[in-house]
Amino acid sequence: MTSAFVIGAEHPEDGGAIEHIDIYNNKIALTYLDGHVQYRGIDSAYDCPWKDVSIYSNTIYNIGSNNPPIRIFPSAQNHDNTIIANNLITGSAYTLICFQLLKSTEITGHLTLTNNLYYRYGGTGHNSWYDGTDKTWGSNNIVGDPKYVIPSGQRRLPEHRRVN
């Protein structure tokens, strides 16, 4: 599996934890990686403790993968002030954000999921939780086309440099 960012602790079986991590202001564009269909923009490994982890103000463009652009692994008891906010999360996979071991009913006091825009190219996007699909997108979310445009005056890549 290939991912732009992978969040994981050393030796989680011995209490390894993820603490004081900010992933912000990134443009993550993964498109049709040659020979790969299993990739994510942001992925996590293991059900280890997360304390003060923030993923905010990122643009994640994950086209051609069967996996969601973001997968968050830990269960509720391992989230202490996790924030996912102000992101543009787009992709071609059925699921756009996946919470592997976290139930949607357990986020209060553990996870803040707010002000994100979600869009699935070629169909309706979905979220995945330990207790089912399409439980919640969080607060103040938008599910819709971000209408990516190149601002006037910006240089486009020459045709021979573009990745299709």
Please explain how this structure is put together.
The chain is mostly beta strands and 164 residues long. It has one domain (2-9, 22-145). 0% of the residues lie in helices and 43% in strands. The chain contains no helices and 15 strands. The protein has strands at 2-7, 18-24, 27-31, 39-44, 50-56, 59-63, 70-72, 79-85, 88-91, 95-99, 111-114, 117-120, 126-129, 132-133, 142-143. Strands 3-6-9-12-15 form a five-stranded parallel β-sheet, with no helix packed on it. Strands 2-5-8-11 form a four-stranded parallel β-sheet, with no helix packed on it. Strand 13 (126-129) and strand 14 (132-133) form a beta hairpin. Mean pLDDT is 85; it is low at 160-164.
